[in-house]
Amino acid sequence: LASGACRSAPPPPVPHVAVPQQIGTWQGTGDRTIGFDSQSGRFRIQWETRPESGALGGTFRLTVHSGVSGRPLQEVVNHDGPGHGSINFEDDPRLYQLLVESGGVHWSVTVDELVLAAPPSGR
What we know:
By secondary structure, the chain is an all-beta fold. The chain is built from no helices and eight strands. The protein is elongated and about 75 Å long.
């Protein structure tokens, strides 16, 4: 008599989902360096540009830099005129800097940490 036949199969692993937690929101005109700490190294950058009063066109460039060494990691936005978008970035947990280079636009940037968590149960 085999007692192993009565065992149930182990439950399947629970898939994890990325849950956004806001790190910060910044806005302005012109150039700016924004520093923040990412505990996971995974974050979403949402950006928007609007023309400055009387300006035609305009430029917006956003580059992610290491907040430790200062070296550029990735240019994530290079856009002319009004617009908006969202970019997911993944690297190591560390201090980061966003370098904003803009002219002729009002810009806003929001950074959300993407934390992996189990989905809520249906109870």
